[in-house]
Amino acid sequence: MHLTALEKELHQPKCRSNTTRLCELLHDSFVEFGRGGEVYARQSVIDALSKESDNLIIWSQNYSLHFSTENAALVLYQSAHENIDGSLHRFSNRSSHWIVENGRWQMCFHQGTPTSEFSRSPV
How many structural domains comprise the chain? Predict the structure, then answer.
């Protein structure tokens, strides 16, 4: 599904370091509720992502899509950071709200909630 691909693109260092692409994917009203309860505005997220290490690997799985209209959807999934040895840490449940604006999907809300360790699902 297109939205799953967009979520996975946002996990890639190439996208996270590309402010032009982030501006395309994140709606002007974008807000994120972080894992620790922090609230982040669009520009602070773009600034933080552009400074991240290229070594960050994000594993994600168990995607589900819930369309409220043909132009709005909720994406739910699990994510974790992957260590060099392949082990996972920083386990989270994730939710993103996407809308179509000017003919393209944009994320307007994202939330990460810490969760207990989970097993890696087969791809």
Answer: 1
> Is 123 a domain residue?
no
Q: How many helices, marked H, and strands, marked E, lie in the chain?
A: 4, 6
SS3 12: coil
Helix then strand then coil, in percent of the chain rounded to 5, is 25, 50, 30
Q: Is 16 exposed, middle or buried (0-12, 13-18, 19+ CB in 10 A)?
A: buried
**Looking at residue 59, which CATH number applies to its domain?**
3.10.450.50
User: How far is Cα 55 from Cα 64, in angstroms, rounded to an integer?
Assistant: 27
Instruction: Please list the pLDDT of the chain residue by residue as tens digits (123 residues).
Output: 699 999 999 999 999 999 999 999 999 999 999 999 999 999 999 999 988 878 889 999 999 999 999 999 999 999 999 999 999 999 999 999 999 999 999 999 999 999 999 999 886
